[in-house]
Amino acid sequence: MERLIFLIVCLGAFAFFFKNIFRLVATICLGRAENRFDNLWSRCGSMFAYGFGQLRVIQKKFGYNHYFLFWGFMTLVLVNFEFLLNGIFPEFSLDFMGVLYVLLKFAADIMSLVVLGCVVLAIARRLFFRPYFIDQTADAFFILCMVGALMIAYFGQHACEIKLGHLEGGMKMPIAWALSNFFSAESAGSLARVFWWIHALVLLFFMNYLPYSKHLHVLTAIPNCFFRSKDMVATVPRLQFKKGEEFGISKVIQFRWKDLLDFMSCTECGRCQEVCPASNTQKTLNPKEMVHQGKVNLFTNSKAVFATRPADMLAPAPKDARMSVPLINGSDKSVSRKAIWDCTTCGACMQVCPVFIEHAPKIVQMRQHLVMEKAEFPEELIALFENSEQRSNPWGIAPSDRAKWAAELNVPMITEGVQAEYLFYVGCAGAFDSRARQVTTALTKILNAAGVSWGILGNEEKCCGDSVRRLGNEYVFDKMAQANIEQLKKYGIKKIITYCPHCYTTLKNDYRQFGADFEVMHHSELISSLIAAGKISPATDSAGRVVIHDSCYLGRYNNIYEQPRAVIKACSGGRAPAEMERCREKSFCCGAGGGRMWMEELDGKRIYLERTQEALRAAPDTIAVACPYCLTMYEDGVKDEKASDRVKVKDIAEIVAASIS
Amino acid sequence: MHIVVCVKMVPDTTQVSIDPVTNTLIRDGVPFITNPYDTNAVEEAIRFKDKYGAFVTAVSMGPPNAESVLRKAVSIGTDRAILLSDRAFGGADTLATSTVLGLAIKKLNEEQPVDIVLCGKQTIDGDTAQVGPGIARRMNITQLTLVDEVISVNTEKKTIRVRRKLENYHEIIETKLPVMMTVEREINTPRYPTVPGRLHSDEVRVEVWSNAQLKLDTATIGLPGSPTQVRRIFAPEREQGEIMMGEGPDCSKAVEAFFEKLLDRDIVHV
């Protein structure tokens, strides 16, 4: 009788579970198509390293708590499989595994205690030393208590069975054996089944509760690591501009399927919030919240889509599907416009996310909708958009002034027939901004001193379109990218040197979507290789104590961390530069990326100030940067902090140029 | 309601320089743009469309490539675009230009009565501010120049109330439609075209009217119809400015010295 009841409960629970799983898969399928089934081996590698190996989880100390919870769970999955089958077929056992089975039972015994310990720690952390980026939710406590109850029931049942002699105790199950001493034979007899049922019911309930809670990640995190983006920092896909299409994303079903899986994979661990420059300076954007809003928005709107079609259909949502809640603005299940414009696309959130959620492309695609479909964006951007489109630079300076900086420097012009190995793609800042022009001049000095074969495109050079793209004006970016590539190909350009990391990543990575395949070098790469090859030998140490800043688009976007350090080291008599508290992968944005350079920063603390103060805490004589935006931001910050007389902000090229005289 | 908005293609004057030897404009490689004042006129026309459901026709006189500025007008919502293009129209001054535009708008008026003709206050290449009033004169309708705010339109009584920006004061005027209105840049912020709007404008047919349609006497248009003669073009000499630096934390001395200079040069008076 008991077995029959259990059979019914168990079948019911599994039926409900698989129905939910199917529903989740169907929900993911609502998204747009994208191929994430390439490079299966490297994907498997990612899955093992980051899914099973939890490599990103354990980058924070408390992550080990999760690590043990996770592995405890993995062990217990097998044991619970046996437990459930055993409930229906009392004869069933995994003991055919022999010595492995003994090991498994032993491991399960130990791991159950470990898990219990982890649960207690996790509860204590949330209660007594909760980090600000983790929200106090009833859901989390409920889940933790359920896990705890599972472990207690597990021990209770096994201890009783050992007492009753149904199980062999001793060192094969040391903890349950030790606990068995607390039970008398009678109590063990009556309690064994009680514990068994508690364990069974909690287990089946837990399994079915997962899809309704943030612990859905138990099911989605590992696939999400498998389907991660191959790019260092994922960018938006290229669009086709055909009449009748919708551009950008205003409905959650317009995301690609992996984005929808992202929404389901978030555990709200808050690591993205902890590193986000916007969240850190009291802006509206909180990447964790955005992903959560995406998730509830998806679940709410998917119901509306499922109501209109057969229940067993696995296919993208129809284009004209009606949404019950808007994705952008309008409810607590929507992402606010303000948040969308707060992002600097620095990629810090994506760098720390343990399950590889891709935040920035989602934000940029929502911007695309606002810009291209609605023409609704912060008003200061209209000048940027028009200047970029009409005059191919953000300031709207006459293109005929682009090469003015080169007038007295005798710069070789590729446009005038000079044959050169490298094109020095100066970039808008390097050509027009008076401060950045000093860096351009410094770099020309280095190129000449090292005997590099180089030239520029003069007034014919065009803006790469970085800001325009990050701000969601894909239509204009598309035209700029095509025109640029056509021109670079016309002059037979193969190798390009850039000074600006934004030009760098745009030419190197974004333009690939448009069929470009240039060999692009950032000046830090080139200079460090020139020093290594002995083509230039920095002598004088002019910069004093140098603290280095990693630009987002150089570091996180392109993994360039060592080269700028090598350059500074060579110019400082072999001394490595000082580091800030947040450096390398964890570097904190200067505030100018993602087109924020051209926008007002009205809420909260200025990002550049937050970062400059951090740099000044390292007591530098020089703050070294390798990006024109960072240069501007730090110079403003140093002025605001009234430190201009003691601290200089310099590009690494300037530091080198000063030391090769 | 039918609005006709006039737009002109102009060289991007911030990129134009004057050849010091020949005193002519160096236009090599200088891109053409919509006259900035006209972008405000188009925006105002589209606002009439949004508010009153007006039908908006954009008209431009210029060479065939001036079609691009009409397409821009279409990309933000203009319903119909007409380019007045003929070799006979070339070399026109403001008088001859307003003759052609005036007649074209009269023809449009016959098809569908025109309530408001909108023009930018002036163009950035000529800076005369004469074409708008010239059109009003030829159409024999009221002219409202230098408008920086449309206060209200009464569609039943067919009246309009606007604010004009004059040198030292504002003037509020109410008058009967139809009117010709020239607008200041402050009147609005032109909207940014949406991508669907742009894709639509790429496909739209721009009507081209030549003098075969307008049948104007060639003596009244183009170069022969232009009494204006350009004797000389030159860049005004600009006197070199100077930088004054104060000394020490006390700024009063520097301010004193500064005002003395202003007094010396007769820029301020005691």
CATH first level of the largest domain in chain B: Alpha Beta
What is the string of helix and strand elements of chain B?
A: EEEEEHEHEHEHEEEEHEHH
What is the CATH architecture descriptor of the largest domain in chain B?
3-Layer(aba) Sandwich
- Work out the helicity level of chain A: 40-55%
- Given as residue ranges, the uncertain stretches of chain A (5+ residues, pLDDT < 50) are none
Give the arrangement of secondary structure elements.
The complex is a heterodimer of chains A (661) and B (270).
Chain A: H1 2-29, H2 40-52, H3 63-88, H4 99-128, H5 138-163, H6 174-180, H7 185-209, H8 217-226, H9 257-265, H10 271-275, H11 277-280, H12 287-306, H13 337-342, H14 348-352, H15 359-374, H16 381-391, E1 422-425, H17 427-432, H18 434-449, E2 454-455, H19 466-470, H20 474-490, E3 495-498, H21 501-508, E4 519-522, H22 523-532, E5 546-548, H23 555-558, H24 562-571, H25 607-617, E6 622-625, H26 628-640, E7 648-651, H27 652-660
Parallel strand pairs in A: 1-2, 1-3, 3-4, 5-6, 6-7
Helix pairs in contact in A: 1-7, 2-8, 3-4, 4-5, 5-6, 5-7, 8-9, 9-12, 18-27, 22-24, 24-27, 25-26
Chain B: E1 2-6, E2 9-11, E3 17-18, E4 25-26, E5 32-34, H1 36-52, E6 55-61, H2 67-75, E7 80-84, H3 94-111, E8 116-120, H4 131-139, E9 142-154, E10 159-165, E11 170-176, E12 179-183, H5 195-203, E13 207-209, H6 211-214, H7 252-264
Parallel strand pairs in B: 1-6, 1-8, 6-7, 7-13, 8-12, 9-12
Antiparallel strand pairs in B: 2-5, 3-4, 9-10, 10-11
Helix pairs in contact in B: 2-5, 3-4
Please supply descriptive tags for the structure shown above.
heterodimer, A: 661 residues, mainly alpha, Fumarate Reductase Iron-sulfur Protein, Chain B, domain 2, three-stranded parallel β-sheet, 27 helices, 53% helix, 4% strand, B: 270 residues, alpha/beta, Rossmann fold, 2 domains, two-stranded antiparallel ribbon, 7 helices, 13 strands
